[in-house]
Write a structure and sequence with these properties.
Its cofactor is Mg(2+). The chain is built from 7 helices and 15 strands. It is an alpha+beta fold. It has 2 domains: about 140 residues, 2-Layer Sandwich (Fructose-1,6-Bisphosphatase, Chain A, domain 1); about 110 residues, D-Maltodextrin-Binding Protein, domain 2. The strands form 3 sheets. Strands 4-3-5-6-7-8-9-10 form an 8-stranded mixed sheet. A hairpin with a 3-residue loop joins strand 8 and strand 9. About 50% of the residues are buried.
Length: about 270
């Protein structure tokens, strides 16, 4: 990948992400009724539907039609190399199990990286009629309105969202961690979609979030929305978000939650 090319305009990348996420969300919403499992991935509970693949194919086609030299990393289609400084990170349906069961909590997430840094994002939650968008350094918006996450609350008054992995041994460890977390917080929520959880954090539906086992396509787009809304996004031991652990909250609460999680093995499978 050349780094001598001129820097792409993050706002133009954001606009393209929003346009494509809107079309992809409409396609997926139309196809939700009567959907069935097409395949499984890492485990029998890690499912794929035909609409996951159809939606990602549409996203790739639309992005590359406008920017044919970009790379695309998608949950279903893998990583296509490009020759530009831009890579798109795509989750066509985040919350596939919710989608399969007719739940409204799923979304389409599209992020644009420039030289490995996420600079633009769109997250479409069709069932809520919500389009989230963000540009690094330019703020986050929901349906065009500037977003600012509510102020931090103390840990014991925090409503915390989380999720569980697909492997039984990981779920057992996550349950052990949760047993230690619950006495220290207001309550827990398990929605089934990191895109919905992280954008919900930006709107104040939750105060904090943590989860082990996410991938870049899970957190890249909603993570930028969250950080541009004033939240801190990170990972284990003060590092960046990773597949080991993603933590998000307002500064202050973030540190309290991270300190609580650190000795519990939340970033391990036990």
């Amino acid at each position: 990948m050349s780094t001598t090319q001129s820097a792409p305009d993050p706002e133009a990348l954001r606009d393209l992400a929003v346009t494509v996420a809107a079309e992809a969300g409409a396609l997926a919403a139309e196809g939700q009724a009567g959907i069935t499992v097409l395949d499984t991935k890492s485990s029998p509970t890690d499912v794929v539907t035909k609409m996951d693949r159809a939606t990602e194919e549409l996203i790739r086609a639309r992005l590359l039609a406008q920017r044919p030299h970009d790379a695309v990393l998608g949950e279903e289609g893998g990583d296509d190399a490009g020759t530009s400084r831009v890579r798109w990170v795509v989750d066509p349906i985040d919350g596939t199990v919710n989608y399969l069961y007719g739940s409204p909590d799923w979304g389409v997430a599209i992020a644009a990286e420039v030289d490995g840094v996420v600079v633009a994002a769109a997250v479409n939650i069709p069932s809520r009629g919500e389009m989230f968008e963000a540009v690094r350094g330019g703020g986050a918006r929901r349906d065009g309105e500037l977003l600012r996450a509510p102020d931090a609350v103390p840990l014991d008054r925090a409503l915390v969202a989380t999720g569980f992995g697909y492997f039984p041994e990981r779920r057992v460890q996550q349950a052990r961690v949760l047993l230690e977390v619950i006495p220290h917080i207001r309550d827990i929520r398990r929605g089934g979609s990191a895109a919905v959880d992280l954008t919900g954090l930006a709107t104040g539906r939750y105060n904090a979030f943590y989860e082990r086992g996410l991938h870049a396509w899970d957190w890249s787009a909603p993570g930028l929305v969250a950080t541009e809304a004033g939240l801190r996004l990170g990972g284990p031991h003060g590092g960046p978000p990773s597949e080991d652990l993603v933590i998000a909250a307002r500064p202050g609460l973030y540190e309290e939650l991270a300190e609580l999680l650190a000795p519990l093995g939340a970033d391990t499978d036990g």
